[in-house]
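Comment thread on ticket #2218

A.B. wrote:
> Attaching the input chain for the structure job we discussed in standup.
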Amino acid sequence: MVELGKIQRPEVESFSGKRKLYFVPNVYPVRDAEEEYNNLVNRFWEDVEKQLERLEIAGRASKILCESIYGDGEEALNILNRINERAHSLVKKRVEQGAVIQPIEDRDILNAYIDWRNCLAIVRSREVSDKIYEFYKEALDRRLKHLQNAIDSNISAGEAAILIMEDDVRVKLQLSKDIELFLVMPPSYDDIMRWLRDRLTGLKR
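C.D. wrote:
> Ran it. Output below, let me know if you need it in another format.
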């Protein structure tokens, strides 16, 4: 795993020929959220764009891999625009520059995972929760396995790709050892996480 600040131009040659994955945490704007939150989200995506431009001296990304996307081309862009317009803007720009969106989700696996996750969020009894968690864990494992295989098969030797995904899912992936992982996490990402923690702490009081 490589930290952005440690990449210097003389070291770029060391990444030549390697498979590179630029990971971007998928941070969602919320239409009715507090203005402060959406301002933080906007700043985050602006920072991501700047960091990616610096990072791509190690190799221009030719593939875009994004969670929740099971189609390609215009279909993928339309789905992304509905669920996260800021991520859509970043992806669309790179597609116009020649990058290709590669679907990494299986629609049925994804929907089962979301359904069981939603059930787990609303259940009230411990007995039912334990039962649902078993199904949720099975769906999660199937999804992770599919994501890992899709990522591995979509990045060829010497290629670079951008992966947009929630970080708590990314950390569960077991990527191939020959994939060099770059984390695109500007300080504004920490600001968002801190803001969310503060709000959650306030709700619990």
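A.B. wrote:
> Thanks. Noting for the ticket: The longest strand covers residues 19-25.
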